Amino acid sequence: MNLDYLKVFVAIAKQGSILAASKALDIPKSTVARHLDQLENQLSHQLVMRNTRHLRLTAEGQRLYHLSESIIGDLEEVEHEMKGQHGSLSGRVTVAIPSEFGVKWLDESIATFVADHPDIAIDCITSMAPLDPIRRDVDVSICYHRGKLSDSGMVVRPLVSMRSAVVAAPSVVADHGRPASVQELSHLPCISTLTALQANPWHFIDVEGRTIALDVPTRYRVDSSLMLIAGARAGIGFAIIPYEFCKESIAAGDLVEFALDLQPAPLEIVAIHPNRQSISTRTRAFVDIVEQQLRARQDL
């Protein structure tokens, strides 16, 4: 069996069309179609049902795809590993990062990574809403996380931990006083998230080190750290925010930080891979750069 033909077939199955496969492989559409025909002739089976509108795998095509996807991936990884040993990284990395966080902290480091490795291609999805790395075909997601991380079977690499602070505007303190316990917050106006941080940023650490989730009343739910801070400064309610993000507002007197009976759970920044097979040399190198940048920012 010709491995070049098999690689083309796997690309067609992944991309969903001959045209998309030709773009992904950077070869002419006619070459993709010809290689598919040649593979089908070699195997004496039709692998793809195709007409003017749709393309789908036959039963034989589905079986071949399931058997060969990992083989092609392993061969490509061997190639990238060998090139990586000589200081050269190549291939495409699809990453997802929170939009505001990525722009503020990672924009230059990601651009430098691509500039330093001419054979690397980056597809970067920026979104504050959580993504399904498997459905979106993402190699790695850089995510916020607070509290207990759900056991999804994915591979999680911790990057940095950021201290959280419970804060409010002076006008909120004037209206509601200074809470001394976490439970008091459950009866006070608070700011929360809509989908980010599993739709509840309010997590605390008890004296035994366990994570405690708190349900709070809210009429302002946002998946934007900038809008969260703006809401807190405007006096909408109490907020739990990474100290790094709000320390200037605290220093200026626009926000007041509270010492409660339990410590706010830190905001963890993690890299999430769909599975171990997705952790290629180029993906690992990308995450290394992200971690270095985040730790450097923490040390400022």
Automatic annotation (TrEMBL):
The keyword DNA-binding applies. Keywords: DNA-binding, Transcription, Transcription regulation. PROSITE patterns: HTH_LYSR. The keyword Lipoprotein does not apply. CDD domains: PBP2_CrgA_like. Residues 1-58 form the HTH lysR-type domain. GO terms for molecular function: DNA-binding transcription factor activity; sequence-specific DNA binding. GO terms for biological process: DNA-templated transcription. It holds the Pfam family HTH_1. Belongs to the LysR transcriptional regulatory family. This is LysR family transcriptional regulator.
